[in-house]
User: Fold Type II secretion system protein H from Halopseudomonas salina.
Amino acid sequence: MTIPAMTIHARAERGFTLIELLVVLVLVGIVASLATLSMGDGAERQLKTETQRLAGVLTLARDELLITGAAERALGLRPDSYSFLELVILDDSTREWRPLVDQQLGVRQLEQGVIELAYEQEGERQPLPQTGGWEPHVRLGNTGEMTPGIITLKVPGKPLERHIRIGMEGSVEVLDAFPE
Assistant:
């Protein structure tokens, strides 16, 4: 069976029109821009996630103390990490704050150079220890009260900050801007 010459010639000339190519390019551009917008700045997304996590575990620790009536606990802060602490009695005159051994409330190491912590209490910035033992910054009582203050999580070298305001009655609030 032979194929007529005109049919072969029509298939050879058939291709994409300029309009079809432009429509495909526009669609690829739209998909690429949506992908870029959804990814956003990785540091900003990580800052938001870590702020929500810290506020969540602070609320969890407060609620756990309310339910169990356990002894006083505290949140210890360092520029690059945080942990919930418990007061351990070593002997009659010696007490020491030690980090909890717990998946949620234990030591949380922040990624080096991505997020840093700062703490302010009664309008004054508190120094955070770099290394050594843990110090209590936010004390949690078994009736729901907490040491009031503001924890700031920031990205070094960028104007990205988020804040956690802690109220004396035990409220925990995440803020985008520093409260006045």
